[in-house]
Amino acid sequence: MPRVGEPTRLVAGRYATIRELGRGGMGVVWLAEDRVIGRQVALKELRTTESERVLREARTAGRLNSPNVVGIYDVIVEDGVTYLVMELVEAPTLSEVMTRKSLTEDEVADIGLQTLSALEAAHAAGIVHRDVKPSNIMVLPDGRVKLADFGIARAMDDPGLTATGGIMGSPGYMAPELFAGKQPSPASDLWALGATMFHAIEGRAPFQRDTTAATMHAIMYEEPVLQRTTGPLAATIMALLSQDDAQRITAPQLRERLSDRTRTVRPSTQSERTVVIEPVTTFVAPQTTRDDWDDEKPKSRKKIGIVAGATAAVVVIALAAVFLIKPTTPGNASAQQGPGSSEQPASQTSSTASSAPSSSSAAPSSSSQAPSSSQGPKPTQSQPNQPQPTTTQPKPPRETLVLTRYLKSGGFHYSGTSRVPAPAGFQAEAHSLGKLLAKEEPGTKPLYACRINGSEDHMTSVSPTCEGQTVLSATPLGHVFKDKPGDVPTLPLYRCIFKGTHFDSLDSKCEGYQQEWQFGWVVG
């Protein structure tokens, strides 16, 4: 480990590394000295074989001229390693600021407005940032804000924008349309800014969940709830987080809204920031090997050196999920064999299913609750000058479809209805998973049958695109209630995971395994 201030190596005969400031998924950031002009810079050593792509992106980002963008000075390819020479910004990130204090609405609006200025400069140059998040926003002691890390930014007309088949960015700050296959756009950058402002004012990320898959699901199908703020700022943040990118607030509209707030508050907030944010030496000095710029790990954040170009988290989203091997009844098979073994006879399949926790057996039957017309009250004799009593027609029963869980030799599971029967080789388990509504109605959402790409495994999804997997049928299996209704007995339906394989269950504890999320409510 070199001593502080001691150069370790010379890059391009010019940039002498002094010490490591941080590292992440894309590489290492060094504090370095430019020996030609005698200034300190941030030297980003990138772990990539795509040097041409990095050069192209750096040239694109280098065109930006904004006081709110961290500058790129030089790009170097030496001995097969690509380096970015960047402006050194000695300041905490917004993520670090949030751990030290609660931000006011005016402060969040000011940070949002300055970040918007950086994005407007990028978008005007035809660039999308693709990784706007708190750890990529630097907050200087004088209140200025700089947007860092254009490391995965791309020109909007780049034909290779989605050619790799992956999705790059930090899942909790990626707009819903990106998961549906749309290209990154200024609108998706603005959505990420909205998620960042939500995090700044609430102290929590709007869609952060325990797994990447659950985070994606929340972004695509759930609406975040603001608790600390109301009024114009809350309305602005929710307008940015619109799931429909066509309905999302635009940059000029956002600037108008935020300018109205910050026009009278920025002079007073500058002195406040100078007091609250500690001197930059507090943040630059520590050395670490953790990727503390990754907002996917909010529970354990160390204070690390922050420089321009903080390493972006690169996430290739691939929900290749398979169904759980259901546990066998103790004594029927060894733990090593596991449920769903190819040696398990059909009679044991039924026994296995009945041994699992089953909420449906205790649930009241919807048919038993339906009133019978023959048991209706007899009409009473009307009295003079009294209105004739009216009779209320019972609500017709809903048409439902039984949702059955199937098991295949090898431990693969499938959940299906009569609309989309089980593929060959699957046998029904003893108990059902309740009933789906046959027809869509307000407050419901569809369930689809999916097959994992390149696998025999299947899963159930609320996404008509099966979250990027193979759609078995465009016709949904049926519909679930989004919220628990009051007019019909219902049971919660969950998607669960066990060692990377998925299955559906009525048990909130997923029969002893990990819950991914709740689909909704099925008829009991």
UniProtKB/TrEMBL annotation:
Q: Name one GO molecular function term.
A: protein serine/threonine kinase activity
Keyword Transport listed? The answer is no
List keywords of the entry alphabetically.
Answer: ATP-binding, Kinase, Membrane, Nucleotide-binding, Serine/threonine-protein kinase, Transferase, Transmembrane, Transmembrane helix
- Give the Protein kinase domain ranges: 15-258
| InterPro entries the UniProt entry points to | Kinase-like_dom_sf, NEK_Ser/Thr_kinase, Prot_kinase_dom, Protein_kinase_ATP_BS, Ser/Thr_kinase_AS
Top EC class, one word: transferase
Task: Give me the segments passing through the membrane.
Answer: 304-325
Q: Where does ATP bind?
A: 44
**Comp. bias (Polar residues):** 330-340
Compositional bias per record (Low complexity), positions renumbered to this chain: 341-393
Q: Which domain of life is it from?
A: Bacteria
Q: Which Pfam families match?
A: Pkinase
State the residue spans of region: Disordered.
330-399
Say yes or no: keyword Repressor present. no
| UniProt EC number | 2.7.11.1
So what family is this one in? Belongs to the protein kinase superfamily. NEK Ser/Thr protein kinase family. NIMA subfamily.
Report the PANTHER family cross-referenced here: SERINE/THREONINE-PROTEIN KINASE NEK, SERINE_THREONINE-PROTEIN KINASE NEK2
Provide the protein name.
Answer: non-specific serine/threonine protein kinase
Lineage of the native species?
Answer: Bacteria, Bacillati, Actinomycetota, Actinomycetes, Pseudonocardiales
